[in-house]
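User: two proteins, same treatment. go.

Assistant:
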Amino acid sequence: MQSPRPPLYFGGSSDAGIDVAVDTVDKYLTWGEPPAQVAEKVNHVRAVAAKRGRKLSFGIRLHVIVRETNAEAWRAADELISHVTDETAASAQKIFARMDSVGQQRMAQLHGGVATSFEISPNLWAGVGLVRGGAGTALVGDPPTIAARIREYQDVGIDTFIMSGYPHLEEAYRFAELVFPLLKLEQPGNVTPLRVNTGPFGETIANEHRPLVKASQS
């Protein structure tokens, strides 16, 4: 492969998917499972990669619903799926159940199609996954809460966050204005702040930290 080259990202929760990741890519991606489950997956992938003499970094795919207060954020989450009928949800869940994707199965297991269990972890809401395939969870809360949850994922090894919202543009503005000022984007060891880019579908991508080049003192 050419060098330098763009970093390759890949996600897959099955054993076969993990094998592909540790053999070929730079960054392993997971959907937004609770931090404890993400930590388990990160540790497993690291162990498989280490056996093959490779080292990967890690990213996560999440939706975000942030408002100035927690109450406002949860109202927005409820409104997002307020027009989803039981029939629509049941139809979507039947389609997801037929898929052989291990990642999709893990998403479905988080809520089991039961409306009363959508907050599957503190401020991690699985309502999106009721009718949306793929990434089906969102961080919901006020700015300090969202920032705290992001730090929890960082603590278990996540350095890249791929985030989106509904509608995306409005949620992106809210996130930038309300959450970015609360994030300690500089980490120990002299690193630059997160670089923020936009993905091919308009999603906000906060990329991994890069080492600082120290200026000469001469």
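Protein 2:
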Amino acid sequence: MAERGAPTARIAERSAVLFLITSAVNVITLILAGLGLFVGILPASRNPLLSVVPAAVGIAALLFFLSLPRLSELGTAHRAPGRIRSLLSGTAESIRDTRDLLLNPNWRLIGAFAYLWCDIAVLVACFAALGHTPSLTAIVLAYQIGYLSNVVPVPGGIGVLDGSVVGMLVLYGVSARAATGAELVYHAISLLIPALWGTLAFVVLRRSKQQPLTLRPTLAERRRLRADRRSGTDRES
């Protein structure tokens, strides 16, 4: 995008909103699955450590990020150092845009939900292919918690991610043999497909990078435009 004339700030803002939207879908799924498991709506072990604790962590993370816009306002009011104030302001703006997108849904949000649920569906299909399909709740929670190991800087999460997901599946009652087989097949697919499509996308982008890039205004920019129009109308009246 930068090679085609997109401002660096816009690239950073859109990347942040994309990350926050997909993360929000992950957190909301974790909360609903954990609470649904604990109250007995969803089938699997009702152990509080495997149901309430994941849901509580998800709620705490969600509340923390929703509070950041307020922290940004406090930092501005108390004249925090310039870099900190700028970081808080940019983060707050991205969180507001993400919140607005989630509260005013459109068809583009399908991609945010499909990003998670289609990936989980691949793992479910791998279990089905092995003839052993555990409850969807167990798969969802084990997948979500196991993927926290991605914070370990290992390329592709090879070894670390597999071990984490398999370990969590076993905790949720899945046999170690079925969990290991399904996870290894799933991980092979999850590495192969992005590699193939990523290579194709790279070739296409290299051929089209000279074409001008047209960017749609962000939600924050649209809000500012509406505010400017209203203030202009008030001055004319």
